[in-house]
Amino acid sequence: MGLRRNAFAAYEAWAPESGRLIEEARRYFPGGDTRMSAHFAPYPLFIESASGCRMRDADGHEIVDFMNNFTSLILGHANPAVVDAVSTQIATGSAYAAPTRNQLDLARLLTERVPSLEQLRFTSSGTEATLMTLRCARAATGKQRIMKMEGGYHGSYELAEVSLAPVPGLCGPLESPNAVPIDASFPDSVLNDAVICPYNQPELARALIARHADELAAVIVEPILGSTGMIPATTEFLLALREACSAHGVVLIFDEVITLRLGDGGAQALHGITPDLTAMGKIIGGGLPIGAFGGREELMRVFHPDEERPVMHASTFSGNPVSMAAGAAAMGQLDPQRFEQLNGLGATLREGVDAAFRVNGIRGQATGAGSLANLHLTDAPLRDARDSLAAATRAGSIVQAVHLGMLRRGIASAGRLMYCISTPMGAAEVELAVDALDDCLRELRPEIEREKPELLL
Ligand SMILES: Cc1ncc(COP(=O)(O)O)c(C=O)c1O
Q1: How many Cβ atoms sit within 10 Å of the Cβ of residue 211?
Q2: What is the pLDDT of residues 2-53, one digit of tens each?
């Protein structure tokens, strides 16, 4: 395809030093990649340093970072208070295998803000956090199967990824989607454990929960479908999950690893719906590796050391004082006004994106909420991962061309065109991104006319 070839050629000419470094990386890592989500074709930029909302790459380009390590850097890079807190902690020891005061600081802050958290525990990643919520639910209910949403992502293990990409022909009927492996590593036992629920379909969800109630330990849901298009759940949908779980003795888990950045109390406070357990990560670590999970004391009791057989939760770096120090320093800077500013800029970004598509006569839109956005090359409504995946498939390499074209214009996003706002950003940075998109779409329009005329308005 000419469009893809041209996009790669322009990018490679613009970032030769990263191109040279990826050659060396290919000696050590399969395909030069040690983290799938941060890799993209033809190769990612090597970053040398960053401060605030700007990064410097190996070729010396200044890049405004709308990716923020997949939404985790809500204060941007190298926030001074976080740098101070981490430096102080590291200089006095990075891990003691003992409790520390700063665990209490972060625990206090989170339990005061997030409605569902009566008690919590720390982990080293969001992956471990969601995993431990599932173990908690199983131990507390004595049941085994887990309902997850089609298109939902909860970390790097099989059950957290089942049916992440609802491929047509494999994903089954919307009323009762198949549990589909996303690669060849999935054992059948994991697929059998999963019950897949369509997103944003309250009545179908109620029926599925009722049908499987006797075997379901938990329902886990992201209040915004983050990895498959930043599609917000409706309150009606989350309420249906809440009511059905309460009615049938199923533990409701909100995965707020991303959505905690929507406001002081996360998405649960905004919707006014309290889950039984909540998984967190990303922003609560101030840029360092972290996760946390918690909820009703009665459920969290399964981890109590005085229980006869407490649920095993260890992990060498759980609650390490450096992540605690960074997290407390970061979260302490966030208050309702800060969230309002971030969310206001997010709305401006989404409106600007919609306008850039319109002005250039190309079908497109931004989904998301608060400080989160995802660009899609369709003007049709997007309700779930089936919709967003179908749109991405139709758009083909245009998604890649927009991503690489934006990088060349100094704007970083995820390869799937996910953007988010950090506090060092202001109206000027959002305007830069929108202007860059406008310019990028203008450049691509003749190629879209030639290769994908159906995407023109
Ligand atoms: C909603 C959600 N849950 C869980 C995770 C896993 O978190 P981590 O990458 O810290 O393991 C992610 C990561 O992107 C996520 O987006």
Answers
A1: 13
A2: 899 999 999 999 999 999 999 999 999 999 999 999 999 999 999 999 999 9
Q: Which atom of ligand 1 lies nearest, measured to the CA of 259?
A: 1
Give distance in angstroms: CA of 154 to centre of ligand 1. Answer: 5
With the most atoms of ligand 1 within 8 angstroms of its CB, the residue from 35, 71, 130 to mutate is 130
Q: Is 261 a pocket residue for ligand 1 (Cβ < 6 Å)? A: no
Q: For residue range 204-214, what is the model confidence (pLDDT) as tens digits?
A: 999 999 999 99
Question: What's the CA gap between 219 and 197, in Å, rounded?
Answer: 9
- List, for residues 346-365, the tens digit of each pLDDT value: 999 999 999 999 999 999 99
Q: Average pLDDT for residues 217-234, to the nearest whole number?
A: 98
Cα–Cα distance for residue pair 329/89, rounded to 1 Å? 12
Residue 329 has pLDDT above 90, yes or no: yes
* Residues paired with residue 147 on neighbouring β-strands, in sequence order: 195, 219
Domains belonging to the chain, first-starting first, are: 2-77+336-455 (3.90.1150.10), 80-331 (3.40.640.10)
Give the per-residue SS3 of 376-429.
Answer: ECCCCCCCCHHHHHHHHHHHCCHHHHHHHHHHHCCEECCCCCEEECCCCCCHHH
What DSSP character marks residue 52?
Answer: B
